[in-house]
Write a structure and sequence with these properties.
Layout: E1 2-8, E2 11-19, E3 28-31, E4 37-41, H1 47-56, H2 58-73, E5 85-88, E6 91-99, E7 106-110, E8 113-118, H3 123-150, E9 162-164, E10 172-174, E11 180-182, H4 191-203, H5 212-221, H6 225-234, H7 236-239
Parallel strand pairs: 2-4, 6-8, 9-11
Antiparallel strand pairs: 1-2, 3-4, 5-6, 7-8, 10-11
Helix pairs in contact: 3-4, 4-6
Length: 241
């Protein structure tokens, strides 16, 4: 993967360059919600042209990177103790840690609480059980929604397989061979945001780029996806924390 550095005044902003098969001319620049910068370019695009495109949008890039970094500064690290809030499918639950010598260790939703039962309530052990619970719930919910959505999308012949992987920068991705990877932390998001990410990745089964045809396909499948994506991006530091 190629990289570059944008220098703008006293700021030095790194960016990654992705050569996108099927892209013919336009260079696209994205600032991800975590402040990382990605440049999508046609395969074999000269580096000087990419550099010029980045410098033309330097002010826009630096402003959006600064905004993203500012959001993350206000996120407090989790301590995994009773009373903390836990997000699941867009709803907030209260974490309740219960010392239970008879329990093998586990977590489950009970009313408005996520109860974690274990012998030793140290934060690392609690975090591990919450993480295992989230993986299990994410796998079950994503499978159900992929199956349901696939029936409504004419280009999907059968629901694809997927795997879960915690990712710092992405909610999901789709490999050229059709293999889909999803971030289990996405299960914290509201249901419409989860559907948006799933439809986005399923659209890559037909167009493995973010070109005009991909956008039209997404528009037809989910006309309000831009609004949903904006809400999801605004919460990334909370959902991925």
């Amino acid at each position: 993967m190629k990289t570059g550095i944008l220098t703008y005044g006293d700021e030095r902003v790194p960016y990654t360059i992705h050569e996108v098969p099927g892209r013919t001319s336009r260079i696209a620049i994205h600032v991800d919600p975590d402040g990382s910068v990605q440049v999508d370019a046609p395969p074999g695009e000269p580096e000087d042209r990419i550099d010029q495109a980045v410098r033309r949008r330097a002010r826009w890039i630096v402003t959006h990177v600064a905004d993203a970094r500012a959001r993350f500064r206000h996120v407090s690290p989790r301590e995994y103790v009773s009373g903390e809030q836990v997000l699941h499918l867009g709803r907030r639950y209260v974490l309740k840690v219960i010392v239970d010598p008879a329990s093998p260790g586990g977590a489950k939703l009970v009313a408005n609480r996520l109860e974690v039962r274990l012998l030793d309530p140290n934060p690392t052990a609690v975090q591990t059980l919450v993480r295992l619970w989230r993986f299990a719930r994410a796998r079950s919910y994503f499978r159900k929604r992929i199956e349901a959505l696939s029936k409504t999308l004419p280009w999907v012949s059968e629901p694809p397989q997927f795997e879960l992987r915690e990712m710092a920068r992405q909610w999901g991705n789709c490999a050229p061979d059709g293999r889909i990877v999803l971030n289990p932390n996405l299960v914290k998001a509201p249901r419409d945001a989860i559907d948006y990410v799933l439809v986005h990745e399923l659209a890559h089964l037909k167009h493995h780029n973010h070109g005009a045809e991909f956008t039209r396909l997404l528009d037809g499948a989910m006309p309000d996806w831009r609004e949903i994506k904006a809400r999801l991006d605004a919460k990334v530091e909370v959902l991925n924390g």
